[in-house]
């Protein structure tokens, strides 16, 4: 099973329309840094509102999950190579180390297996050093029909 | 930034139903606007709907990350309210199964501590909504589970 070769314009449309298409991504200030068939990268600038523990000065893990969920979904669509509705079946997060106050978050996700029904995605999140991830994740998505398809 | 004392925040919540100090300790709960109330001593959580929580405007459906973030908040606040932790517990992992897409209405959640050891607690989280057009009927949106690392528990 191989996805049809997606045109370059497809990824550009995904990247540019992302924030408009996803109101919550816009509210959180998420930006796509790169997207192609191999995966997606996005970032989210730091805000005090992201903290989960003001005493230790660390992020709430739910913030990391939200960015990972978004970028993983993008990677699934990018892997499919066409606009289609996808539904998250499950998502697992391992929080490897605390995300520190003051620095933004980056996430990279890739669809490592695509079947006609399912997209399998893994992702990692980091702050300053990609080699020191704050979280890694695995998720699965149910592929739907392309919008307008019968 | 001054930090509200955890024991005091817990007391205000337990004895007076005032969750504002607890939310101050957890800014992301305040950002999402997670509401807490105690029902016979058991915490219940609600996330009031707002437009910016939407992930798919076509359906419309709430963002999956919002559902997850709400449930992670519920699990954390549940532990903060029920245990006498001196530090905010650290999340080790979180896993969520999405059962159906979340409608553009309030979310509700309740938690259960399935296991509490000296160092680790396992929390199960259930998330649901009211069924549109069917008052009194609910639909399950997602199930989650999380492990938290606990610090020094105050002796009872």
Helix-strand layout with pairing:
The complex is a heterodimer of chains A (150) and B (156).
Chain A: H1 8-21, H2 23-28, E1 31-36, E2 39-44, E3 51-53, E4 58-59, H3 61-80, E5 86-95, E6 105-114, E7 118-126, E8 135-143
Antiparallel strand pairs in A: 1-2, 2-6, 3-4, 5-8, 6-7, 7-8
Chain B: H1 6-16, H2 20-25, H3 27-32, E1 35-39, E2 42-47, E3 54-56, E4 61-62, H4 64-82, E5 90-98, E6 107-116, E7 120-130, E8 138-149
Antiparallel strand pairs in B: 1-2, 2-6, 3-4, 5-8, 6-7, 7-8
Brief rundown of the structure:
The complex is a heterodimer of chains A (150) and B (156). With 150 residues, chain A is of the alpha+beta class. Chain A contains 3 helices and 8 strands.
Unreliable segments of chain B (pLDDT under 50, ≥5 consecutive)? none
The CATH topology assignment of chain A is Thiol Ester Dehydrase, Chain A
Total individual domains of chain B = 1
- Largest sheet data of chain B: 6 strands, antiparallel
Structural class of chain A: alpha+beta
The biggest beta sheet of chain A, please?
Answer: 6 strands, antiparallel
Largest interface comes to:
A-B, 40 and 44 residues
CATH class of chain B: Alpha Beta
Strand content of chain A: 35-45%
The coarse silhouette of chain A is: globular
The general outline of chain B is globular
Quote the CATH topology of chain B: Thiol Ester Dehydrase, Chain A
Average pLDDT of chain A, rounded to a whole number, is 92
**Radius of gyration of chain A, Cα only, in angstroms?**
15 Å
Quaternary organization = heterodimer
How many discrete domains of chain A?
A: 1
Based on the coordinates given, report the CATH architecture of chain A: Roll
């Amino acid at each position: 099973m191989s996805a049809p070769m997606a045109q370059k314009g497809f990824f550009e449309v995904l990247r540019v329309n992302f924030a408009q298409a996803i109101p919550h991504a816009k509210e959180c200030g998420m930006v796509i840094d790169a997207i192609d068939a191999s995966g997606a990268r996005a970032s989210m600038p730091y805000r005090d509102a992201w903290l989960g523990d003001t005493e230790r000065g660390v992020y709430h893990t739910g913030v990391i999950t939200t960015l990972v969920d978004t970028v993983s979904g993008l990677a699934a669509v990018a892997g499919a190579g066409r606009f289609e509705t996808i539904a998250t079946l499950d998502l697992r997060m391992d929080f490897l180390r605390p995300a520190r106050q003051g620095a933004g978050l980056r996430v990279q996700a890739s669809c490592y297996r695509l079947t006609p029904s399912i997209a399998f995605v893994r992702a990692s999140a980091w702050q300053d050093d990609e080699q020191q991830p704050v979280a890694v994740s695995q998720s699965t998505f149910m592929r739907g029909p392309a919008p307008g398809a019968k | 930034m001054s930090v509200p004392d955890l024991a005091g925040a817990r007391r205000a919540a337990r004895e007076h139903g005032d969750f504002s100090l607890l939310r101050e300790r957890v800014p992301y709960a305040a950002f999402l606007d997670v509401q807490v109330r105690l029902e016979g001593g058991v915490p219940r959580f609600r996330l009031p709907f707002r437009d910016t929580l939407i992930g798919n405007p076509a359906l419309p459906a709430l963002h999956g990350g919002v559902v997850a973030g709400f449930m992670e908040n519920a699990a954390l606040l549940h532990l903060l309210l029920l245990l006498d932790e001196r530090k905010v517990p650290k999340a080790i992992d979180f896993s969520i199964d999405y059962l159906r897409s979340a409608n553009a209405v309030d979310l509700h959640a309740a938690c259960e501590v399935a296991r509490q050891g000296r160092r680790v607690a396992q929390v199960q989280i259930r998330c649901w909504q009211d069924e549109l057009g069917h008052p009194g009927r609910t639909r399950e949106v997602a199930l989650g589970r999380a492990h938290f690392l606990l610090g020094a528990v105050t002796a009872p």
